[in-house]
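Reviewers asked in the last cycle whether our approach scales beyond single polypeptides. To address this, we selected a multi-component target totalling 231 residues and predicted its structure end to end. The input consisted of the following lines:
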Amino acid sequence: GDSVTQMEGPVTLSEEAFLTINCTYTATGYPSLFWYVQYPGEGLQLLLKATKADDKGSNKGFEATYRKETTSFHLEKGSVQVSDSAVYFCALTTGRGSQGNLIFGKGTKLSVKP
Amino acid sequence: GAVVSQHPSRVICKSGTSVKIECRSLDFQATTMFWYRQFPKKSLMLMATSNEGSKATYEQGVEKDKFLINHASLTLSTLTVTSAHPEDSSFYICSIHSGLAGAYEQYFGPGTRLTVT
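The resulting structure, written as structure tokens, was:
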């Protein structure tokens, strides 16, 4: 079945360090790929998305490129801030029409130290 | 994006009692809502898909008689955990979906922490 695998956390970085969180997927068809972020005490928020191969999603300095050849959607940011501390979830959906249920990875907790 | 609220944010109940969790779409008419369960250090697991005006579709392994879902309006879905047991303790999260073709974004509520003693 469809699945998402992302790197285990927690990840601890110093402010202004480079961030990469790996995500690979298994899916039939042509999935859309997402990164969601969950800040402490809050619900999940969509961070960025890509709906077809070679698309690059970007938001708030974060980027991820849909790589069909490696079935990957790695999240990157050039210079992290303390405010980026959160749990990051990679997800996919192959849904069509109104049924867009998401399949999530296990989440990666990021802690950024000043 | 759409704003989604959940109530209560945290609830403690005794074994054998039932608990109702509300999910509201505050600024959007949601034809489809999803209910997820999140275990500690694990991923979100889809429990069921709720469509306004019709019966919910449950994922394999989720007991529909234990987790009752009602999507009575375009802005409200409820999840009732019946005869709760300690193993039902978890973080329950709802999300809404626009239902528009090609629009796959979901907007999530802040979650409800259920503790069954």
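Residues 14 and 114 of chain B are 11 Å apart (CA to CA). We regard this as preliminary and will revisit it once experimental data from Aim 1 are available.
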